[in-house]
Design brief:
This protein has 194 residues and is an alpha/beta fold. The strands form three sheets. Strands 2-1-3-4-12-11-10 form a seven-stranded mixed sheet.
């Protein structure tokens, strides 16, 4: 099973390490053609506007939309969550518009307001270690979206079928349980298509 990490910006090596720790083969994705050989894709954190511009420049918008339409799982972390969202508060244009949710950028404040915490995530037995850095927030979700965890009554982890989105950076810890959860999603999707 091969899972890609979109390598336009963000903690690509850290996601690859976490995916490999969870038992998957992981590769950095720099070209659209690479998507054909993948069963799943991680869209890492970084700066969502920059990621969106680079995705448009290198043809990833349509390619990832097609990838998703084949039922192949996508996992967006921090800025990656913003890229997946159908609507971004205060912005006219969203990016991929794949996930039925409205998000707020930098909802947790500036870099100096970054923090770490343990979250109970539905479907994962042990608490997940989460690092929040200028993190976005899921303000509202549609009826087909499952809320998997909250922090201070705000949604920070959500899933819609083959799409998984988190406000934080699970890859910046030694806890790879969320990546293992995503690897399981990828396995399930591969089985259902077989």
């Amino acid at each position: 099973m091969k899972i890609g990490v979109l390598a336009l910006q963000g903690a690509v090596a850290e996601h690859i390490r976490s995916l490999e720790a969870a038992g998957a083969e992981a590769v950095a994705v720099k070209r659209v053609e690479q998507l054909d050989e993948l069963q799943g894709l991680v869209i890492p954190g970084g700066e969502s506007t920059t990621i969106g511009k680079l995705m448009r420049k290198y043809g990833f918008m349509d390619a990832i939309a097609k990838f998703s339409s084949q039922g192949k799982p996508l996992f967006g972390t921090c800025a990656g969550l913003i890229v997946l969202a159908d609507e971004i508060e205060g912005q006219e244009e969203a990016h991929l518009r794949l996930m039925d949710m409205t998000v707020a950028r930098n909802a947790f404040g500036r870099q100096r307001e970054s923090f770490e915490t343990d979250l109970q995530v539905e479907g994962i037995d042990e608490p997940v270690r989460a690092v929040f850095i200028r993190a976005p927030l899921i303000k509202k979700v549609g009826s087909t979206v499952d809320v998997l965890s909250t922090y201070n009554d705000e949604i920070v982890t959500a899933r819609q079928g083959h799409l998984l989105a988190v406000s934080y950076h699970p890859e910046l810890t030694d806890d790879f349980s969320l990546h293992a959860y995503f690897v399981d999603m990828v396995k399930e999707a591969a089985v259902s298509k077989a």
